[in-house]
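#struct-queue
[09:14] JT: dropping the first one here, sequence first, then the structure tokens:
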Amino acid sequence: EEIGQSKPDMHWDTVYRTCHPCMIKYDFIGKMESFNDDVNLFLHQINARKDIVLHEDYTSKLDNILIEVQNFYDRVKKAVECGLTFEEIVKRYWEVLFHKNLITPPTTLPNIQK
């Protein structure tokens, strides 16, 4: 094929253009924030809950929290240089922990006084 006329490489193309996710009629849509609950609900709906046992890997969760805390401390100085307050930085990382399902509601952001 001529240069510029090749087929797109699916490994470098967007998921949207490769997989056409909007063309699929989904029966179940889950979210990463509630992954464990969504999986349990799905298994219950297909009557497979008693056949499959899910174990929460607390070691992995603690490792991921540690990584996020290390990232937090590595980036604090740069974030402050960008004009963020310490409280804003903590709030952003608290949200990261929540969205990665490393902390669960009703966990609230502690009152941070620098």
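[09:21] JT: and here's the second one, same format:
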Amino acid sequence: MRENDDRQQSFGLNENRTPDPAAVYAAVEELSRTPKRRRRGVQVAGGVAVGAGLLVGLVGVPAAFASEVSKPAHVNQVAATASAKDKAAPSPSASVSEEQARNAYFAAGYGLDEAEKLAKLWNITDLSATKAEAGRRLLAGQTLPIPPGSAPTDSEHDAQRAAFFDAGYGWDDAVKLAKLWKLADPGQAKVKAGAKLLAGQTLPIKPHANSEAQADKQVNAFFGAGYDYDDAVKLAKLWKTKTPYDAKVEAGKRLLAGKKLPIAPSAEKQEQARLDAYFAAGYGWDEAVKLAKLWKLADPGQAKVKAGAKLLAGQTLPIKPATPPAEPEEDKQVNAFFAAGYDYDDAVKLAKLWKTTSPYDAKVKAGAKLLAGQTLPIRP
């Protein structure tokens, strides 16, 4: 009986050390309102996915943070206002999964650049482990030594990574460069390589293969110019490529470089491609009438074709569509994938894991899972 009395007394003494889950969630919610840095032009519905994952993760927070505290820390001010009682913030608990911790990290508005800074401050070599550690501290009600979104928009590292991919390099190349330069992380190799490319230097290896992003861009340029599959077949025979798809990629590459192809699309196909671009952008008859008056054209039909040509060339029209096109479901899923901190390299890994036909299909599948509140088999 005495032993049971001692246990009850011990439980009573430690009962209030468990943080109020409402307070913890309020703290993370407040942090998540800080303006977030756009990651390569993507800032969308992925927040819904991360928020859903965080809500699921917080269900087990009270049990996860029932550990003893050696030194009490100051509770985040927002958490204090959300809680009726002042409580000491527990030290980060290892019982919180890395997935839950990283979700909290991203939900608070932190990104890759902040992870790199924190890794240096904490002497952690693994960026993924850094994000998880930061997330645990946030969930424990602690504040991080740097604010979220502290890195400038379009940061230097973003520009360097973009230069790396724009030059046709990919994940396999980053792995090779990391080994060559004795870097711990292929991500660091991308940044270093991009910096060299922006400085006009050449890298010690050539691109492994045409990246998926570049190929998509080139194929889109091919179709956007009014060409179709039959034209690709003709070009494949003319250039002796393995497949019509290879001919599309090569043709798009030449078109983007301002070169002409040995065959021209029929006038009818070219006009149809321009009309498709016009309507796909959300424009209709009323806008065509306005554009015809603006450009002094006799027929609104001519205005549609001219407007479509401008859109295909990447130009903007002088008026906005009355009804902007709804975001396709696949776009939402892909955007959710990137917003959760994943990138092209992760899509390649998932494509191999799920045996999808392409990394793009893996992005769509992964985004759908994230929007449904599910977790992925790999971490960002």
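[09:30] RK: nice, looked through the second one.
[09:31] RK: The chain has 20 helices and no strands.
[09:31] JT: good to know. The longest helix spans residues 267-280.
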